[in-house]
Amino acid sequence: MNIWIAIGVTAVGCYAVKLVGLLVPEGVLERPLVRRLAALLPVALLAALTAQQTFADGRVLVLDAKAAGLAAAALALLLRAPFLLVVAAAVVVTAGVRAMTG
Amino acid sequence: MRAGVPTVRCVAEQTALEETSGGGGAKPDPAVVRDALGVGVAVGLSGFAFGVTSAGSGLTLTQTCALSLLVFTGASQFALVGALAAGGNPLTAAAGAFFLGVRNAFYGLRLSQLLALPRAVRPFAAQWVIDETAAVALAQPSRRAARIGFTVTGLSLYVLWNLTTLLGAVGAEALGNIEAWGLDAAGPAVFLALLAPMVRTAVERAVACLAVVLVLGLLPVLPAGVPVLVAALAAPAVLWVRGRRRAAMDDGGMPMDDDARGTGR
C-alpha cells in the first residue's frame, strides 16, 4: 500500500509540473535565479543518487563490485559511448567482478 | 531519460527560439521523423533497465508498469524505486522523484511558445514533456517540424519505454537474483549518464561534488531517502556562495569567474 501511495503522489506531482510548464504565462518562471536553480537541482539530485546507489547498502557505506561497474560506465561516458552501452558496461563489469571475487 | 542526446540538446539551446520564431525552415518531414525516431528508439529501449531495476527493488509487475505509464520521466522513476528499495518513507521517496521532475516545467515553458498548442490539447501533450521530446522539438527549424518532432519522439518513446519496462520486469523475475547479473548497477549507471552532460561549468561541478559529500556523509545518520533531499540543497547553497563571492569581487574590482555558460538551461 505504501508503494502505491508513493506511485500515486509521484505520478500526480510529475504530471502537474509538466502541465504547469505548458499552461503558465511566459515570464512567470523565467526569472534568472529560478532558471539557474531549476538547472542545478537535477545536478545535485543525480550526483547524490549516483553516489548513494553505488556506495550505500542500506545505511552503511560499502565499496564493492558496483564501484568497478560505475568506473566502467564513467569511462564509457568519457569515450562518448551511447547511453545503452554506458549502462551495459556498468552491468557487465559489475557481474564480472562479482563472478571473479565470488 | 535524456542521455544520448546531449548534442541535439546543445544545438537546441542555442538556436531554437530565435530560429523557430521565423518559421521559414525547409527541413523535410521525413528527416524530422528520422531524427525523432532515432532518439525515441534509443532511449525507449532503456526502459528495459528500468523494468529490471524496479522489479529487483521489490515492486510488482503492475506497480512497475504503472510508474512508466503514469510518471513517464525516467530519472524520477529510477529515483523512486531506488528510494523505496532503500526502505524510505513513501512521501520522502516521492519528494525526491518530484524534485527531479521539476525541470520538465521549464521544458514545457519553451515548448508551449514553440508548438503553440490549443489549450484543449495541452493536458494530453503534457505527459510527453520530457528531456528527449524537448531536445528534439527545440532543435527543429520551423513550428511544423517542431510539432512533428515532438509528436513522433513522444509517441515512439512512450510506446517503447512502456513495452521495454514490461519486458524488463518480466525478465527480472525469470533472471532471479539480479545482483548476480550485475543489474543493480544499471540504476546508478543511468543516473551517471544523465548527469554527465549537465556537469560542464565550475558551478555545476561544485554542486555535484557538494551533493555527493552531503549524501554520503548523512547516509549513516539520517532516515532512508532524507539524505538525497538534503543533498539537493547543494544547488541553492552553491548559488548563494557564488552570489556572495561575486558581490565581493565586484566591490574589489576583480574580474568575475567565467562560468556564465550554462545559464541557458
Largest sheet of chain A: 2 strands, antiparallel
pLDDT < 50 runs, ≥5 residues of chain A: none
Helical content class of chain B: over 70%
Distance between the termini of chain A: 36 Å
Q: What class, by secondary structure content of chain B?
A: mainly alpha
- Strand residue content of chain B: under 5%
Number of helices of chain A: 4
* Major sheet attributes of chain B: none
Name the poorly predicted regions of chain B.
1-24, 254-265
Order of helices and strands of chain B: HHHHHHHHHHHHHH
Beta-strand content of chain A: under 5%
Which two chains form the greatest contact, residue counts included? A-B, 72 and 100 residues
Instruction: Write down the overall mean pLDDT of chain B.
Output: 83
Give the fraction of residues assigned to helices of chain A.
Answer: over 70%
- N-end to C-end Cα span of chain B: 16 Å
Give the radius of gyration of chain A.
19 Å
Radius of gyration of chain B equals 20 Å
Q: What's the arrangement of strands in the largest beta sheet of chain A?
A: 1-2
Number of strands of chain A: 2
Order of helices and strands of chain A: HHEEHH
Overall pLDDT level of chain A: 90
Give a quick precis of the structure:
The complex is a heterodimer of chains A (102) and B (265). With 102 residues, chain A is mainly alpha-helical.
Write the layout of secondary structure elements.
The complex is a heterodimer of chains A (102) and B (265).
Chain A lengths: L1 H22 L8 H24 E2 L2 E2 L3 H14 L4 H19 L1
Helix pairs in contact in A: 3-4
Chain B lengths: L5 H17 L6 H17 L1 H10 L4 H10 L3 H12 L4 H12 L1 H13 L6 H4 L5 H8 L4 H33 L10 H10 L6 H17 L7 H6 L2 H19 L13
Describe this structure in words.
Chain A: Keywords: Membrane, Transmembrane, Transmembrane helix. The complex is a heterodimer of chains A (102) and B (265). Chain A is mainly alpha-helical and 102 residues long. Chain A has helices spanning 2-23, 32-55, 65-78, 83-101, and strands spanning 56-57, 60-61. In chain A, strand 1 and strand 2 (60-61) form a beta hairpin. The mean pLDDT of chain A is 90. Chain B is mainly alpha-helical. Chain B has two domains: 6-198, no CATH class; 200-265, no CATH class. Chain B has helices at 6-22, 29-45, 47-56, 61-70, 74-85, 90-101, 103-115, 122-125, 131-138, 143-175, 186-195, 202-218, 226-231, 234-252. The longest helix of chain B has 33 residues, at 143-175. Mean pLDDT of chain B is 83; it is low at 1-24 and 254-265. The chains are: A mainly alpha (102), B mainly alpha (265). At the A-B interface, helix 1, helix 2, strand 2, helix 3 and helix 4 of A face helix 2, helix 4, helix 5, helix 6 and helix 7 of B.
